[in-house]
Amino acid sequence: MWNWFDQFSENQARTLATQISRRNALNRISRLMVGAAFILPVLPFDRSTANAAGVNKAKDDATACEYWRYCAIDGFLCSCCGGSLTQCPPGTDASKVSWIGTCQNPNDGKDYLVSYNDCCGKTACGKCLCNTNVGERPGYSLGKHNDVNWCMSNDNSMFHCTTASVIGLAE
Ligand code: ABN
Question: What pLDDT score was predicted for residue 48?
Answer without folding.
Answer: 45
